[in-house]
Amino acid sequence: MLPRVADSLSFLYLDVVRVHQDDTGVCAEITTEKRGRETVYLPTASLACVLLGPGTSITARALATFARHGTTVVATGMGGVRCYSATVPGTLTTTWLEHQARAWADDTSRLAVATAMYEHRFGPGQAPANATLQQLRGLEGQRVKALYRLLATQHRVGRFRRAYDPETWDTQDPVNLALSAANTCLYGITHAALVALGCSPALGFVHSGNQQSFVYDIADLYKAELTIPLAFSLHASASPEAEARRSFRDNLRLFRLMPRIVRDVQHLLDPEHTRPPEDDEDLDEQLVDLWDPVTGPLPGGTNHAP
């Protein structure tokens, strides 16, 4: 049985390697004077996301294999800090994209989804009745600052201020470095889950104007639980970026992030959706439907002439 997106491994970060395909499968290869040539085969069918850092090359055959298996491939900067581009598998259903587009295009439903995101993070009933998006942003900012103060006190960091500046990357404190590295991994996993569902990463409900807007929306649901506490725990680390990626990957095995993203996105876009997540991948394969404004979807691959 092919693995489902909810069961996929989280992510793999690679840099300074050559990724290619041989007769056995896709592998990452590196050659050094001390250790010679080393080759590691990659579980392409069960990887949700591959982050390609600087010094990485990949062949067309290997990239095509990732695409066939629905693995998102993201080209990133050093340590996975920046996202330059990402592949999008083409054999996806549009069911959840249609839900997303309908909710995004209507201001009332868009605000309702944004409010649901806020209450998902901070608890049911935490959003004031008839709150505007500006009010929700203000409430979110207050809660995040309070979390920063709490964790800074617990870890005796002193006053903490969130900063992200790639131009002065090496001069930033360990907490900011770890948080940026962990967040980038979280963005990659979230992007992979959204693409696997067929959603558009660009149609955000809180964020806007960026091809990753919906990725940022969904990733924000988990930062307070995953990346922020992790970053503060690495305040004394000598290599916070590398440790953040390793610890983040280890924590995901307990956190079960992929199934949560799938379930949460479906609930946000369609609150009436009650089908258990384990059944989501058991749908029969369908041909492309034809759109009809009166009768609804019609089967494709059929001659509809009288």
UniProtKB/TrEMBL annotation:
Residues 278-287 have a biased composition (Acidic residues). Mn(2+) binds at residues 140, 207, 220. GO terms for molecular function: endonuclease activity. Its EC number is 3.1.-.-. It is an enzyme of class 3 (hydrolase). Residues 268-306 are annotated as: Disordered. InterPro entries: Cas1 (IPR050646), Cas1_I-E (IPR033641), CRISPR-assoc_Cas1 (IPR002729), CRISPR-assoc_Cas1_C (IPR042206), CRISPR-assoc_Cas1_ECOLI (IPR019851), CRISPR-assoc_Cas1_N (IPR042211). Its cofactor is Mg(2+); Mn(2+). Keywords: Antiviral defense, DNA-binding, Endonuclease, Hydrolase, Magnesium, Manganese, Metal-binding, Nuclease. Residues 268-277 have a biased composition (Basic and acidic residues). Pfam families: Cas_Cas1. Gene3D superfamilies: CRISPR-associated endonuclease Cas1, C-terminal domain (1.20.120.920), CRISPR-associated endonuclease Cas1, N-terminal domain (3.100.10.20). Belongs to the CRISPR-associated endonuclease Cas1 family. CRISPR (clustered regularly interspaced short palindromic repeat), is an adaptive immune system that provides protection against mobile genetic elements (viruses, transposable elements and conjugative plasmids). CRISPR clusters contain spacers, sequences complementary to antecedent mobile elements, and target invading nucleic acids. CRISPR clusters are transcribed and processed into CRISPR RNA (crRNA). Acts as a dsDNA endonuclease. Involved in the integration of spacer DNA into the CRISPR cassette. PANTHER family: CRISPR-ASSOCIATED ENDONUCLEASE CAS1 (PTHR34353:SF3), CRISPR-ASSOCIATED ENDONUCLEASE CAS1 1 (PTHR34353). NCBIfam families: cas1, cas1_ECOLI. Homodimer, forms a heterotetramer with a Cas2 homodimer. This is CRISPR-associated endonuclease Cas1. It comes from Streptomyces evansiae. The gene is cas1e.
